[in-house]
Recover the amino acids of this structure.
């Protein structure tokens, strides 16, 4: 089946530092999504990408849909303590009859004040 | 005005019991899902369901069954619970007829089987 390789698995950074994480796959997708999960909560959508090469920002977050359609990255600038959580990439190929998301295994982010 | 709500938030039960988790979405979405998140935080789809079809992940034991009384609800029934069923279960919904519709998740039900 389709798999997403998300890295790194975990990160410890100082407050104020920039963060970068990415997802790669051997499969082609036409939608990439980035979610954040806080402890005890469900994943919440951060950024959605629908076109190859698309670069989208949401506040301090920036994500890009790789031009090959096989990868995506998420950057967080000037991290703050509330950025702590698990970040998931997810991708979908919306062909006929196919609308299920495939998820990466998550990047656990810890921010040291 | 929670978009996807599931109950209970915590469920502790003994092996062999039968239990249900309820899920409701008020987004008007046409498709609902159940995901299982294990101790390593990996999200694994169990079911997706709309009025037309139920898609089951073949790795899900048949002790698990989704029940949908209407478009806004997809409940999860689990029979003969086992220790390995302990996990966090997430309900989600999306509008499949809108190709760009992302998933919206509930806040999860932490199931502990003793």
């Amino acid at each position: 089946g389709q798999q997403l390789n998300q890295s790194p698995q975990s990160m410890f950074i100082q407050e104020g530092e920039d963060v970068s994480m990415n997802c790669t796959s051997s499969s082609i997708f036409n939608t990439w999504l980035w979610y954040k999960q806080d402890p005890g909560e469900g994943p919440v959508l951060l950024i959605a990408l629908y076109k190859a090469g698309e670069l989208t920002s949401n506040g301090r977050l920036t994500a890009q849909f790789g031009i090959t359609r096989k990868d995506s990255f998420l950057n967080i600038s000037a991290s703050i303590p509330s950025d702590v959580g698990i970040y998931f990439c997810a991708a979908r190929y919306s062909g006929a009859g196919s609308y299920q998301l495939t998820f990466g295994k998550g990047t656990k982010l810890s921010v040291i004040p | 005005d929670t978009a996807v709500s599931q109950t209970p938030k915590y469920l502790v039960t003994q092996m062999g019991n039968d239990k249900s988790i309820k899920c409701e979405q008020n987004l008007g979405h046409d498709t609902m899902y159940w995901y299982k998140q294990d101790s390593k935080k990996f999200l694994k789809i169990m079911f997706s369901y709309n009025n037309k079809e139920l898609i089951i992940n073949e790795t899900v034991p048949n002790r698990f069954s989704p029940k949908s009384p209407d478009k806004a609800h997809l409940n999860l029934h689990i029979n003969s619970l086992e220790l390995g069923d302990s996990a966090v279960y997430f309900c989600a919904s999306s509008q499949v007829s809108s190709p760009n519709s992302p998933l919206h998740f509930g806040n999860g039900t932490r199931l502990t089987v003793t």
Chain B touches chain A at residues 4, 31, 40-43, 45, 48, 55, 90, 92, 94, 96, 99-100, 102-108 (CB under 8 Å).
